Amino acid sequence: MSSNEANETLDMNYGILSLGQTNPFIQALYEARVAAYVIWQIIDEPSKINTNLDKGLIKDDLICDIQFSNVDFSYPSRSDVPILTNLSFNIKHGQSVALVAIARALLRDPKILLLDEATSALDDESEKIVQKALERTSQNTTTLIIAHRLSTVRRADKIIVMQQGEIVEEGDHESLIKAQGLYFYFVKQQNIRQIEEEEEE
């Protein structure tokens, strides 16, 4: 065998070996393309609600009570971690209720207003301004507030304190402070008393 033939044979063997090493990557690429296709199907799915329209029927006689009854929830990716467990409460029209936990959504000019960590990114002064505006807006609105920053919720008509997806305390700010339970502990941690004293001054 000549030296050229030997080199060609070695090159061929090296190429076949390299091609064989790419097989796992080809499989991974295929799986990624399949996964991406499923995701894009969800993204491209037409919405049943046209969110770009500003016209439509506005019901003035809408009953704005909210009722949660035995609600259980966990994320599909972590089904073993409960977010809500047997959650039950009622909110009457015109009341504002604060959940010290998790949730979502903000609606403009609504009968029902949902606020999810609405002031969490604001400094103290900006939060006070926004909070006063929200209080004026909420007088004729049923408001559901989700917050970890307790200064946002201390003026709510009803505060629901949740731990590991379950309601552990319920009441207004003053009654929960007097009870000296979990909410009281959170308030001490966030030093709300100091904020209240500054506002009274």
Any chance you could write out the topology, listing elements then pairs?
Elements: H1 3-21, H2 23-44, E1 66-73, E2 84-91, E3 96-100, E4 112-116, H3 124-137, E5 142-146, E6 158-163, E7 166-171, H4 173-179, H5 182-190, H6 192-200
Parallel strand pairs: 3-5, 3-6, 4-5
Antiparallel strand pairs: 1-2, 6-7
List keywords for this structure.
about 200 residues; alpha/beta; Rossmann fold; 7 strands
Textual characterization of the structure:
- It contains 6 helices and 7 strands; from the N terminus they run H-H-E-E-E-E-H-E-E-E-H-H-H.
- The protein is an alpha/beta fold.
- It folds into 2 domains: about 5-45; about 65-200, Rossmann fold, CATH 3.40.50.
- It has a 5-stranded mixed beta sheet, covered by helices on one side. The chain has a two-stranded antiparallel ribbon with strand order 1-2.
- The protein is elongated and about 95 Å long.
Sum this structure up briefly.
This protein has 201 residues and is α/β, with parallel strands linked by helices. The chain folds into two domains: 3-44; 66-200, Rossmann fold (3-Layer(aba) Sandwich), CATH 3.40.50.300. The chain has helices at residues 3-21, 23-44, 124-137, 173-179, 182-190, 192-200, and strands at residues 66-73, 84-91, 96-100, 112-116, 142-146, 158-163, 166-171.
Shape: elongated
If you compute it from the alpha carbons, what radius of gyration comes out, rounded to the nearest whole angstrom?
28 Å
Fraction of residues in helix = 25-40%
Overall average residue pLDDT: 73
| CATH domain class name of the largest domain | Alpha Beta
Number of structural units classed as domains: 2
Low-confidence stretches: 99-107
Strand order of the largest sheet: 4-5-3-6-7
Structural class: alpha/beta
> Count the strands?
7
The tally of helices reads: 6
CATH topology tier name of the largest domain? Rossmann fold
What name goes with the CATH superfamily of the largest domain? P-loop containing nucleotide triphosphate hydrolases
Span between N and C termini?
100 Å
Largest sheet, in brief, is: 5 strands, mixed
CATH-defined architecture of the largest domain: 3-Layer(aba) Sandwich
SSE series: HHEEEEHEEEHHH
How much of the polypeptide forms β-strand, as a percent range? 15-25%
